[in-house]
């Protein structure tokens, strides 16, 4: 059958556009979403090269390590010894959203992740809001994780009795001028992504293996100094402290949705994406809770207040062996590099999907014939993220990332409910269990965790959304390709059967 396509550049078709209210509610037809990955129209396409292993490692690589390696010292003072409960609560909220992501990833295996799911269910207005939140989630989280690189680079150098001065390892506001290690890691990840997705995926897989290994090494050593007394009292800051810490460490779980941004580069996305998402959540949650218990068992919770690179310091104090701290610190730098690589990958694919729809400039969807990657868009994103990582403090980045992520996750839960009711006939390779209770509870938990974030974070989020509103009316509203379809074209595409997505030969 003929593959449906969106029109090309449409800025000259202003008269055919629907009224604002109707445009904001216009949904992208499922037939277009499903056919888009293979509708090249003569232009280069993304290469289908990922199996379930690479997809799982993308998800684990983008998720595992962030909260444990970077913000543990900022989170333990909020919850006390119950920090492991905070990780479990945040993990439950993420898991409830992950099952919704798994259903949508099998249903709509496109690069746009929750942006694409929202466009298909709630219309252009909510899709733009979701996409704008994802820009906040991915780009800012890359910067936030990269900021932590300076801590571990210094822990590595300390073994050789030298450190980088704060002026070049901390951002303004944290006692420095620019965080050079953070910028270097982002630049290296950008260069690797420009070269090719397949090569990036295999390097990420190797780094993830190292990351899991060093965290298990930490647990093995920390449990030798385990003291049950460190957990008494369990809730020194009360239930409110546990909830506040859960909202902050939710930042640690963003990234599992990175696998869903690889829908167009998976060999069999309808089968492998749901498997990868669920498997990665199981791996990450188990390791987070295990490491949190080991860390608190090894040191009283008050010890963590203001401590940077806490896990390395625990190893140093327990073993007294500099080489163990060196191995862990080097592994931590690689772990951070893995997160930067995979989350930056997800950001470029989100922008690619938004660009195809005309909501952001076309340069972000321009795929290189030589590398099969959106090279120009990757370079633009990489430069912007590198500057953010070098100049913005960690705490503000982590909380801003969490609120954008939670909002996007809530929308995905709502999308599952909508499509189950509106399009029950669509083939689903994975179905959310205990429907509709699971997605409803997932959305409620996301809203609850958002409510526990501070007023400063909400102000930042509101300012970000105001900028996004200006960007939509300044560019997206006028260039939207779905809105440019006349009513007859739109109705025909909305009624068209959804092409199937099969494995690559």
Automatic annotation (TrEMBL):
Superkingdom of source: Bacteria
UniProt subcellular location: Membrane
A GO MF term: amino acid transmembrane transporter activity
Broad class of where this protein is predominantly found: membrane
Alphabetically ordered keywords of this record: Membrane, Transmembrane, Transmembrane helix
Membrane topology designation: Multi-pass membrane protein
Protein's UniProt name: Amino acid permease
PANTHER family per record: CATIONIC AMINO ACID TRANSPORT INTEGRAL MEMBRANE PROTEIN ROCE-RELATED, INNER MEMBRANE TRANSPORTER YGJI-RELATED
